[in-house]
Amino acid sequence: MVISRWIKPDTKLYVSLNDISRSLDWVFEFRPILFFTIWTMMAAGLSAFKGDTIDEFYWTTSVHWPLFLTFFGITLIACSSALRGDDSGTEKLTLILFIAGFVIVLSSVAMEHVEAGKMSRIFAVGAWVSIFYVSWRLYLKHWKKFKNEKMIMSISLSALPALSLFMIGWHLGGGKILGGMLASAPYACGFIAVTLLWPLSVQAEKLHHRDFMNGITRIVGLGGILMIISIFLGYRMGDPVISTAAIITIPFFAVALVVTRAEHIIRAFRYPIMILAFFVGVRYPWLCLAMFLNFNAIRLYNYFRHGVIRPTLKVSYD
After folding, report:
1. Is residue 6 in a domain?
2. What is the pLDDT of residue 19?
3. pTM score > 0.90 for this model?
4. Does residue 22 lie in a domain region?
5. 300 belongs to a structural domain
6. Which of 171, 220, 252, 273 reaches 20 to 30 Å from 68, CA-CA?
7. Mean pLDDT computed over every residue of the chain
8. Is residue 314 part of a domain?
9. Cα-based angle 227, 273, 224 (whole degrees, multiple of 5)
């Protein structure tokens, strides 16, 4: 990061910025790092519907405020899901964020579809938002407990957020439920494949990047199989976004399966999210802008607050 070369930790300016960053600790209780996945899966549903109904659908830059408000509302709901703590203050904030996000989402959908006589879309989006909130909150609460013997539970809890986010985007585009359920299958498979590696990636980050990890073949192998299924389904459905993203991603799983070093596990977890976001961003470039701003805001906070440059795609530190 360029700014780390200009402002060193031993300077007075860094100390001042550290104090400012410390005052923002409450903001990062919402875990904005998770916004990458949430925005990408929602935009993927919207992209899949538009790509299925409009020939040569790429690089749309029109500003659509109801859509922006919907993404903002889902972000508030995601913040509510991510909050941890059982004290009354946290529980109150969790409820406020959920209600505010839910109202914003339904209001923005109503702005778009009531005049067109499509009230059913409001109920559909509301139902999927509720499913997302419950399943995502449960997943974030229990994901660290998912080991080999609990993979079925991990798959179930990660499939629901993936499906619900995709379907919210699909309905926003104007799609119907059956077509969306079918179109979501390759995206859900890819999402599950990546989330299976989340606990392993956290464990790998605590090791030297060249260290080998034991007992991970089953999880990585299952993730690779799911990614292959994603490729096949995406190709059969004529979806170039997910099929191409999954094809580029599969070598990371293959390498991690053959050479079980920590660095390969981290790559197999981090890179697929970026790759899918890139291909969805070809259709909706505003997604890339939002992710760029979020990425750099988190990096600046982590550098001035904790002295580390994260998030990062860099894996090896020699």
Report:
1. no
2. 94
3. yes
4. no
5. yes
6. 273
7. 91
8. no
9. 20
